[in-house]
Specification:
Elements: H1 23-41, H2 45-61, E1 75-77, E2 82-90, E3 112-119, E4 126-128, E5 133-141, H3 153-156, E6 159-165, E7 171-178, E8 185-187, E9 194-195, E10 200-204, E11 208-213, E12 227-228, E13 234-237
Antiparallel strand pairs: 1-13, 2-3, 2-12, 3-11, 4-10, 5-6, 5-9, 6-7, 7-11, 8-10
GO molecular function, one term: phosphatidylserine decarboxylase activity
InterPro entries: PS_Dcarbxylase, PSD-A
Active site: 208 (schiff-base intermediate with substrate)
């Protein structure tokens, strides 16, 4: 049940259920179903039945499952489902650095750890807040639609930057990046909104990437090539630095 407190002592009550479809995707699924049924009605079954199967895929793409969100104060949770495709020390995007026209305090220009999460068309594409706090910035940048798995996609693709600040002043910046198939980034929040950790903040349609810029002095707690889950996987713990190694097998 959404909002129910669950813990590692076995307290709480859970059961499996089909994940709901986000309202943003229902219209696309229904359009696909209507078109496929039209072809079947016109005896173009060779087109209609494959389209009907495709419509099921459209509904599946927009699935919006509940997630059990860690509540530890030092935890930074994954904002996206997908594969950890890049981990690097880089400077944050210019749009998230320094004060903006509204007087919002931005990130430092010094290099920090960036974790890139690649979302395939088979992943859940609802993005979630990595920390609780106030949306300080939401900056949309038009651009290209090259492969989101490429490093230069962070600077050249269509993207949207989000900056969240906790009550204690700690900030996290992350970027939603469109890819080869993704053609629209849909925000659910606006500057000034207060969000909880793990709260839904946006959606990228049909395959894409999210970059997360960790605070200074904080290393990734995930490994390159690791599969992670939005709102559940802990990407990092604030102020913790250590080398982690994994074996692909």
């Amino acid at each position: 049940m959404a909002g129910e407190l669950l813990d590692n002592k076995g307290r709480g009550d859970v059961s499996w259920s089909w994940p709901p479809i986000h309202p943003e995707g229902r219209k696309y699924g229904l359009i696909a179903v209507a078109v496929s049924l039209l072809f079947i009605f016109l005896d173009w079954e060779i087109v209609g039945w494959p389209l009907l199967a495709l419509s099921a895929g459209v509904f599946a793409f927009f699935r919006d499952p509940e997630r059990v969100v860690p509540q530890a104060d030092d935890a930074i949770v994954a904002p996206a489902d997908g594969l950890v495709s890049l981990i690097a020390q880089v400077a944050p995007p210019p749009e998230l650095i320094g004060d903006d026209a509204s007087g919002s305090r931005g990130l430092s220009p010094e290099p920090v750890t960036r974790i890139s999460i690649f979302m395939s068309v088979f992943d859940v594409h609802i993005n979630r807040a990595p920390i609780a706090g106030t949306i300080q910035r939401l900056v949309y940048i038009p651009g290209k639609f090259m492969n989101a798995d490429l490093d230069k996609a962070s600077e050249e693709n269509e993207r949207q930057h989000i900056l969240i600040e906790r009550p204690d002043g700690m900030q996290i910046g992350f970027t939603q990046i469109a890819g080869l198939v993704a053609r629209r980034i849909v925000p659910f929040v606006k500057p000034g909104d207060i969000v909880a950790v793990g709260q839904r903040v946006g959606l990228i349609r049909f395959g894409s990437r999210v970059d997360v810029y960790l605070p200074a002095g904080t290393d990734a707690q995930v490994l390159l090539g690791q599969k992670i889950i939005a709102g559940e996987t802990i990407l990092a713990r604030v102020g913790q630095q250590q080398l982690l190694e994994g074996l692909a097998q």
